[in-house]
Amino acid sequence: MRIPCPYCGERDAHEFSYLGDATLVRPDPAAVDAQDSALADRFHDYVYLRDNPAGAHREWWYHANGCRQWVRVTRDTRNHAIAGASLAREPGDAA
Amino acid sequence: MRYSFLSILANGLNGQSDWKPAWRDAAPKPSYDVVIVGGGGHGLATAYYLAKVHGIHNVAVIEKGYIGSGNAGRNTTIIRSNYLLPGNEPFYEWSMKLWEGLEQELNYNAMVSQRGILNLYHSDAQRDAYARRGNAMRLAGADSELLDKRQVRAMYPFLDFDNARFPIQGGLLQHRAGTARHDAVVWGYARAADTLGVDIVQNCEVTGFLREGGNIVGVETTRGAIRAGKVALAVAGSSSRVAEKAGLRLPIESHVLQAFVSEGLKPVIDGVITFGAGHFYISQSDKGGLVFGGDIDGYNSYAQRGNLPVIEDVAEGGMALMPRIGRLRLLRMWGGIMDMSMDGSPIIDRAPVPGLYLNAGWCYGGFKATPASGWCFAHLIARDEPHAVAGAYRLDRFRSGHLIDEKGVGAQPNLH
Ligand SMILES: Cc1cc2nc3c(=O)[nH]c(=O)nc-3n(C[C@H](O)[C@H](O)[C@H](O)COP(=O)(O)OP(=O)(O)OC[C@H]3O[C@@H](n4cnc5c(N)ncnc54)[C@H](O)[C@@H]3O)c2cc1C
Ligand SMILES: [Zn+2]
C-alpha cells in the first residue's frame, strides 16, 4: 500500500503511522454544562463509537519517516484504493 | 451416524460407501425461535448449546458464504486460558474445560492437542508481571508454571537465549493450553447442532432486519425474509456492518490480521511459543508446517489481505526469537478481518434494540473462546440474563467505565 503524501508524493505505507477515523469531532466541553450527562454521552461516542465503514473511510496517517505532517486520506477499506489525500492543516475534502 | 472405531472399520470393508454428509444443507424456513447470524465457530457453538443445554431446537444458523469461511477457518488455532483479569480468566478457563471434553461431547475429532503454551519473558519486570498473571490464573482454577532460563533451555534449546537486545530469562508455561484443528471445530459443532435439529443455511446473507414496533422480529436475507423470536449476531469481523442495519454504532473497528505457514518440516516445535519482546508466536501443525503470526496491520480494513510492513515485522520477530527459521521458505500467508473492540475484550450482551443479541469484539483471540462463547451466548439468549463467567462482557462498559483492559491495546494502533 502506498500513500500519496501531498508534500512528499507517493510513499510506502511503512513510513506512516495510523490514527483512525478523521471525521470524528471532539465535543466542546464549554458548549454544554459539564454536569450535563449529554456531554458524557458525547465524549463516550467520540472516544469509543465508530462508523467502521466497508468502503470509503476518511482517516489520519502521520508521515513519521517523511515530512512529519498529519495527512487526511480517503481510502476504500475493502481494497485499499486511495481516492485522495490532503494535509491536516488544510481544512476540507480529501477526495 | 455415530463415529466410532467400528464405523471406520465397517466403511473400510465396504469401500467407504456408507458415509453420510455430516450435516444437512438446509433451506431457510419462514420462521424460527432463534436465528443466529454467522456460521463461524461462535454461531455454530451457540446453536449447539441452545439445543443441547436449553432445549431450544427450532434454531437456524444463517451464513453468507460457507460455514467456517470467516475467521474460524483462518486462525492460527491456539487455545489457552492465561489471562490476568477477573472479567476474563474464569471465562477462558471455562472455555479450556469445554475444550478438554469437546471431542467426546461432539463425537468428532477436533484434534485438541494440549501441547502447552510458553510466554517468554526478557526482563525482571516482565518476569514479575508474568508471575502475577500465573498466580491470577491459578486463583481461577487454571494451571501455570513460571520457568527460569534453565528450564526453558531444556525445552527449546534452539531459541536465541543470549540475544543482545532481548535475552530470554524464562517463561510462563500453561501446560493445558495448545492447539485445535480449526475447521474440525466448525464441522464438529455443525454436525452436532444439525443432529439436534438446527438448520444450517449457507449462501444466505443477512441484508437487514424485520421490525415490529421497536422490536426486531426477524431478518431480511438474500434468500427471503425469516421471522424469529430472537435474533443473535455472531458475525465477527462484520459486526459493525450488520449491526448498522439495526441502527447501532459499535465500539469496534475492523482490522486485518495476517498469518503464515512455512513449508513442512520434521517435528521441531512441540508446543506454542510466544516472543515477549515483540509480537510473534509460533507453533507447528500436524502436517509439519510452522504456523506463525504477529500484529494486526493496524488500519481499518475489510480486505481480508494485508500489506508488507507487517510481514517484515513478523519475520524480524521470528528471527530475533529463533534465528534458525531464517532458512525456511514461506508456503502461504493470508488475512482475516478482526472485530477489534476498543478495550481489546469481547461483548456478549443484549443489544439496545429488543429482540437482538450481540456477540462481537473478539479481536484476534476468539478461537480459543469458541466453546465458552457459544455456551454463554446460548445462556443469554435462552434466559435473558448473562452467564456468570461472561458477566463483564457488557456493551455499556465503555459508557460506565468498566473497561476490561487486559493488555491496554484494543483497536488503537499506536498502543500495539
Ligand atoms: C490470522 C488469524 C489468526 C488468529 N489466531 C487466533 C488464535 O491463534 N487463537 C485464537 O483464539 N483466535 C485467533 N484468531 C481469532 C479468531 O479466529 C476469531 O476471533 C474467531 O474465529 C471469531 O469467531 P467466529 O469463529 O464465529 O468468526 P467467523 O468464522 O469469522 O464467523 C463469522 C461468520 O459470519 C458470517 N457473516 C458475516 N456477515 C454476514 C451476514 N451479513 N449474513 C450472514 N453471515 C454473515 C461470515 O461469513 C463468517 O462466516 C485469529 C484470527 C485470524 C484472522
Ligand atoms: Zn510527507
Notes on the protein architecture:
The complex is a heterodimer of chains A (95) and B (416). Chain A has 95 residues and is mainly beta. Chain A contains 1 helix and 6 strands. Chain A has a 4-stranded antiparallel sheet with strand order 3-4-5-6, with no helix packed on it. Chain A is elongated and about 45 Å long. By secondary structure, chain B is an alpha/beta fold. Helices cover 28% and strands 26% of the residues of chain B. In chain B, the strands form 3 sheets. In chain B, strands 1, 2, 8, 9, 10, 11, 17 and 18 form an 8-stranded mixed sheet that branches. In chain B, strand 14 and strand 15 form a beta hairpin. In chain B, helix 2 packs across helix 9. Chain B starts with a helix and ends in a 16-residue tail after the last helix. The mean pLDDT of chain B is 96. The chains are: A mainly beta (95), B alpha/beta (416). The interface between A and B is medium-sized, with 28 and 26 residues. The site of flavin-adenine dinucleotide (FAD) has 39 residues of chain B, from helix 2 and strand 12.
| Sheet with most strands of chain A | 4 strands, antiparallel
What would CATH call the homologous superfamily of chain A? Folate-binding superfamily
Which CATH architecture of chain A is right? 2-Layer Sandwich
The helix/strand series of chain A, from N terminus to C terminus, equals EEEHEEE
The structural class of chain B is alpha/beta
For the record, the count of structural domains of chain A works out to: 1
Low-confidence stretches of chain B: none
Strand content of chain B: 25-35%
Question: Mean of the pLDDT scores of chain A?
Answer: 91
Radius of gyration of chain A using CA atoms only = 15 Å
Task: Report the oligomer.
Answer: heterodimer
Q: Treating each run of at least 4 consecutive H or I residues as one helix, how many helices of chain B?
A: 10
Number of strands of chain B: 18
Lateral arrangement of strands in the main beta sheet of chain A: 3-4-5-6
Strand content of chain A: 25-35%
GO biological process, one term (chain A): tetrahydrofolate metabolic process
Enzyme class (chain A): oxidoreductase
Keywords (chain A): Oxidoreductase
Protein name (chain A): Sarcosine oxidase subunit delta
